Amino acid sequence: VPGYSPSFKKPPAMLRLKRKRLRSSESAASAPPSCGAATPRAPSAPARRNPFSSLENAPRAAGNPKLRERARLPPPLAGESPSAVPFWQLLEPVCEDKPIPRPESSDRTDDLALTNDLHLPVAVPEVPSSPKHEFPADWSIKTRLLFMSSQPFTWTEHLKAQEEAQGFAQHCRATETNLPQSIQEPKLSTELRCAFQQSLVYWLHPSLPWLQMFPRIGADRKIIGKASPWSQDEALQQVLMSEWSVSFTSLYNLLRAKLCPYFYVCTYQFTVLFRAAGLAGSDVITAVISPTTRGLREAMRSEGIEFSLPLVEESRTRKQKSSEVNLETEADNSLEVSKSTEDTEEPSPSDDDDDDEASFSWLEEMGVQDKVKKPDALSIKLHKERHEVHVDHKPESLALVKGTNTFTLLNFLINCKSLVAVAGPQAGLPPTLLSPVAFRGGTMHTLKARSINAKARVHLAYKDISSLEIVGPVMPHALHSLTMLLKSAQRGAFSAVLYTHEPTAVFNTNLDNASPALNKESIHKDLPACGLHPKTLNQLSQCPTLGKHSIRFLEMKDYAYTWKS
């Protein structure tokens, strides 16, 4: 066949061939038809579709020069329909004359994911908060942050060796950095770049470079297939757990001495957040566990650990108040009738026991008590605790431990057999410890940051936008530190999309009613030595206000925050 080559062509050759065909078809379409030329096919006749192509593949546009020319046009203006633009056109390089490097498959996937993110958060949230100079503390762990601004993020790129070393030194020495409200040339500000490196540092144990140590809940797919020599070696497991116990105890001692503000214990089933006295509106050390199960709670009770279920108690109180309101409205203005009705609706525990014993007396009266199988004590107990069992594995199962009971919880977790998986990809792997400060056995890590210049859709038009992506376990102090830097570098105008590790969103529950910080001055006296910036420490000291939710969208305009949870 003329013009047919049986050899396979490489991608560059195919691209050159497509461009050559495109130029020839354009020239043929623009040339006037000759008198003796055959009559072209009517435009109404549909082109034959390739059965092996997808619905949105190029052959549909390839048959029509107008459609092909439209695909090469720049993004639509305000009057055009945005749905006609493919989503990959949202990322356009700023410098058109620069050659585009050939990306790897993982980078291509990240770029496409970033493309989808760039045009989503530009829209204003439906129910934003009122503008304030500070956003509430978010105690959840973020897995990814995406900042966007009209000002470039070039100041975050290519840190010098001296700037990187200075950032590490500032972190280890807990150096406080105070920046002006606005920086005219962020890329030339060494102080800003060092502070950026300082805000990316966190500490982790155990550190296994070939394994992703966070998140641990639902991480089997990412860990499976990786080398785990400890899974079948009990001696190695004991060594790992011994080192982990030393690190865990070191963190708790730092917390009790107010040299560590908080830390996380991430297991394959639940997460524990330890907070120092004075944080989150509490005057004692607190530990919150989520999610929990009845088995875990029973084991904690058997070890003498006193704890409460704040969300379960809150729901119970709310139902009680609503029932009291209904009783008052339905009563016939008689206090005695209302009181008796409330007593019958809420019997005491002793009345419940009497009812349980009397509930089977009618079997004896009928003489069939030996023929009917009565439920055992365990079934009766489960029936009484059905409301508590119903919240297992849910955010409502959040357990709160306070004061000296946190030390008992420490010993319980160290000796708990179910803390480590016995089967599966995470078998024998100790829980992950995350901390904002150094501790014994901890390894210094940094969050991954990269900046991208792209075009994002705002309403029906496109505008140049710069983005900064932060990936890793972003703890509350890191989120606040980064926003303080962006406030100065981006001149008080940026927005952010926050991706939350969902099991930790419930840590924003307000526990102020349990142990309010009455004397805040004496409690906060030693907290400045914990290594956090004073403004960050002040934010984390406030009572949580987000409830079971976390901040999903954060925006700053004219140095004022709005957010959506």
TrEMBL record:
GO BP field: nuclear DNA replication
Compositionally skewed regions (Acidic residues) per UniProt: 343-357
Region (Disordered): 1-82, 318-357
Coiled coil stretches, renumbered: none
Entry's localization field: Nucleus
Composition bias type Low complexity, residue spans: 25-54
GO CC aspect terms: nucleus
Tagged with keyword Lipoprotein: no
Keywords: Developmental protein, Nucleus
PANTHER family: DOWNSTREAM NEIGHBOR OF SON (PTHR12972), PROTEIN DOWNSTREAM NEIGHBOR OF SON (PTHR12972:SF0)
Annotated family: Belongs to the DONSON family.
Protein name, entry field: DONS protein
Gene: Donson
